[in-house]
Amino acid sequence: MTTIHPEPLTAAAFAPFGDILEAAGTPDMIINEGFCERFHDRARLDFGAGGRPGISIFKAKPRALPYQFSLLERHPDGSQAFIPMSEHPFLVIVAPDENTTPGRPRAFLTAAHQGINLHRGTWHGVLTPLHSPGIFAVIDRIGDTPNLQEHRLTEPCTVGM
């Protein structure tokens, strides 16, 4: 069984898989008569042909570390953003694409103030909150065509502490 350890979620480490959604660094502009900092255009949203953006609310059961998984999935027709609706960190599992199957998984642990946007076609684990209530706003593609591919690992993988 493969064991991986969660890395801190940084823009450089996560760049091959998606974008980090956070209010960090210098704001792009100050708005609302100086009372609001705007961190502009922080995610590459991509909804493909025949789709439209939609906002859904997901409520996922929390998991604990060590965490074992064997399922990875991807969405070939659109990006998928996860914005936590609580101040708890969550676990993000991703893997590079290796000839239409997932490569070696990586795990990231978000900070309490971070969300993510997975680029179109990125292999990823299921939504994995580590605390209740596990509620997320999810921005992704809504359409009539299938937009989910699942892959079962031949051997489970564990995210250690």
What can you tell me about this protein's structure?
- This protein is globular.
- Helix content is 2%, strand content 49%.
- The strands form 5 sheets. Strands 2, 9, 12, 14 and 15 form a 5-stranded mixed β-sheet that branches.
- It has one domain: Ureidoglycolate hydrolase (Jelly Rolls, Sandwich).
- The mean pLDDT is 95.
- The protein has 161 residues and is mainly β.
- The two termini are 15 Å apart.
Notable traits:
161 residues, Jelly Rolls, five-stranded mixed β-sheet, five-stranded antiparallel β-sheet, globular
Summed up:
2% of the residues lie in helices and 49% in strands.
Shape: globular
Supply the number of helical segments. Answer: 1
Any guess at the CATH architecture?
A: Sandwich
Percent range of helical residues: under 10%
Write the layout of secondary structure elements.
Elements: E1 2-4, E2 7-8, H1 11-14, E3 18-21, E4 29-31, E5 36-38, E6 51-59, E7 67-74, E8 80-84, E9 90-95, E10 97-98, E11 101-102, E12 106-109, E13 115-118, E14 123-124, E15 128-129, E16 135-143, E17 149-159
Parallel strand pairs: 1-17, 2-12
Antiparallel strand pairs: 3-13, 4-5, 6-16, 7-17, 8-13, 8-16, 9-12, 9-14, 9-15, 10-11
